[in-house]
Specification:
- This protein is of the alpha/beta class and 486 residues long.
- The chain has 3 domains: 3-67 and 217-295 and 430-485, 3-Layer(bba) Sandwich (FAD/NAD(P)-binding domain); 107-210, Guanine Nucleotide Dissociation Inhibitor, domain 1 (Orthogonal Bundle), CATH 1.10.405; 297-421, 2-Layer Sandwich (Guanine Nucleotide Dissociation Inhibitor, domain 2).
- It contains 15 helices and 19 strands.
- A 7-stranded mixed beta sheet has the order 7-6-15-16-17-14-18. Strands 9-2-1-13-19 form a 5-stranded parallel beta sheet, covered by helices on one side.
- α4 (116-138) packs across α8.
- The longest helix has 23 residues, at 116-138.
- 51% of the residues are buried.
- Keywords: Carotenoid biosynthesis, Oxidoreductase.
- It holds the Pfam family Amino_oxidase.
- InterPro entries: Amino_oxidase, Carotenoid/retinoid_OxRdtase, FAD/NAD-bd_sf.
- Residues 14-481 form the Amine oxidase domain.
Length: 486
């Protein structure tokens, strides 16, 4: 029986482990932290439950497909509820509420800009076509050749790879609030809307068409489900097991070293940070130089606050976006002139608004996220300064006092991403999906220097986000299974 070792236990690693075990390999997972999940871990404190990483459940079809590949359904493992409203966007002088149907969303768009609902329906129709092409054709290709992007469908849409989402949105909508709302989903892809190919408007269909969902108990329920599936399939998972070296003999991978012990394998797949994974190899076996990583465009890092409130909060939904400052300016401070933002946009998540299991009775679980450039200086003083900025704005926009109701707060920022996830420059979401970093232009799933060494996750194909990570695990396992069949 062939043996595979998977480094890390995030979404892409667990996905790869499941597919490889199903194909008959003996699979072991080595995770440096004390719980599985990678960036999608959970914190439970004083009865409050926090997802400390991803908190948006989009593209439910991808999760269903994943479990269906093993003869399962998501409902075998967790309960899924569609959120209504999906989220609320706060502006300086108004709020926009995104409901759970196109009908509700169109009404809201009409309220802001007369005649915009017709443009919206056309825009989402095109986004749906792109979604079907992206998810059923392009995304399922391993990023080995430029020809993978050439299908009869993409050839007809080639102009959409050279126009930006910003251009497309601004052509149809004039009101800046609607523009910001439509440009928001591509922030999940980790680049400015003006630098993201308009083909990626399929994210708008994921948002308005497929809706925003919540697994009861939080996003960590998906990790628990995948862990349980992996173990059913015979995967062995080791936590508290940092890998210190990827072992190579005669240009072929032979295993890993963990805590001074060598563990041998026919295949090694690293779902850990790609840059870090290459540092586990001797210099001569690395594919990418430090200059290479230095010149790439990274998705943002984040400053996060996890807060337990002793009361229920008012005027908020499960997901809330605070776009009450200049969207463009903040984007420039992340991508163009990296610095701590002068007037940050932020996101606030209160899962206990819809899921009582996530906070003690009469309390609220709060998670605040400020997107920032990767690689910034991170000090306790800066965190505190931004905590005050966020809280003051939050109180002002939601018209309530909350600071005096805080039971505890924890923060997480650049230094933590580096320390806990070996994240390059402390990035939170991997490499941005710009035209020059799409598909085959991303770091490869397969090492070009070491035989039988593979990589998976947000720095490789297809890109950042939870659904793409599940797909990344499938793509890498497909390459290995094909290899076995030769």
């Amino acid at each position: 029986m062939k043996k595979a070792i998977v480094i890390g236990s995030g979404f892409s690693s667990l996905s790869a482990a499941c597919y490889l075990a199903k194909a008959g390999l003996d699979v072991e997972v080595f995770e440096k932290n004390d719980t599985v999940g990678g960036r999608a871990r959970q914190m439970v404190k004083e009865g409050f439950t926090f997802d400390i990483g991803p908190s948006w459940y989009w593209m439910p079809d991808i999760f269903e497909k994943f479990f269906a590949n093993f003869g399962k359904k998501t409902s075998d493992y967790y309960q899924l509820d569609r959120l209504d409203p999906a989220y609320k966007v706060f502006f300086e002088d108004d709020t926009i509420t995104i409901g759970d149907t196109m009908e509700k969303i169109c009404q809201e768009f009409e309220r802001i800009e007369q005649g915009s609902s017709e443009h919206l329906r056309n825009f989402i129709e095109q986004a749906q076509e792109n979604y079907n092409i992206a998810i059923n054709k392009v995304v399922l290709r391993p990023g080995i050749s430029p020809l993978e992007l050439v299908t009869k469908e993409t050839v007809l849409r080639v102009d959409q790879f050279f126009k930006s989402i910003s251009q497309e949105v601004r052509k149809r909508f004039k009101n800046p609030k609607l523009v910001s709302t439509l440009e928001f989903p591509v922030l999940f892809l980790g680049a400015k809307p003006s630098k993201t190919p308009s083909f990626y408007n399929f994210m708008n269909f994921a948002d308005f068409g497929l809706g925003t969902w919540h697994p009861k108990g939080g996003m960590y329920e998906i990790i628990k489900a995948m862990k349980s599936l992996a173990e059913e399939l015979g995967v062995t998972i080791h936590t508290d097991s940092p890998v210190s070296k990827i072992l190579v003999s005669d240009k072929e991978v032979i295993g890993i070293r963990c805590k001074g012990h060598n563990h041998l394998a026919d295949y090694v797949i690293s779902g850990a940070d790609y840059h870090h994974s290459e540092t586990l190899l001797d210099q001569k076996h690395r594919q990418y130089s430090e200059e290479y990583w230095e010149t790439k465009t990274y998705a943002p890092s984040s400053l996060l606050f996890y807060i337990g409130f002793r009361k229920k909060l008012e005027h908020v939904e499960h997901h809330n976006l605070f776009f009450d400052t200049d969207f463009e300016k903040h984007a420039q401070e992340i991508y163009d002139t990296p610095q701590w933002p002068s007037e940050p946009l932020f996101y606030a998540n209160f899962p206990s608004v819809t899921d009582a299991s996530m906070a003690p009775k009469g309390c609220e679980t709060g998670f605040f996220l400020v997107p920032i450039a990767p690689g910034l200086e991170d000090t306790p003083e800066l965190r505190e300064q931004y905590f005050d900025i966020v809280m003051d704005r939050f109180e002002k926009r939601t018209q309530q006092n909350v600071k005096n109701s805080i039971i505890f707060k924890e923060s997480f920022c650049v230094n933590d991403f580096v320390e806990q996830y070996n994240s390059y420059k402390g990035n939170a979401y991997g490499l941005a999906n710009t035209l020059r970093q799409t598909a085959f232009l991303r770091p490869n799933l397969k090492s070009s220097r070491v035989k039988n060494l593979f990589f998976t996750g947000q720095l490789t194909v297809p890109g950042p986000g939870v659904p793409p990570s599940l797909i990344s695990g499938k793509l890498v396992s497909d390459l290995i299974i094909k290899n076995l069949e030769k």
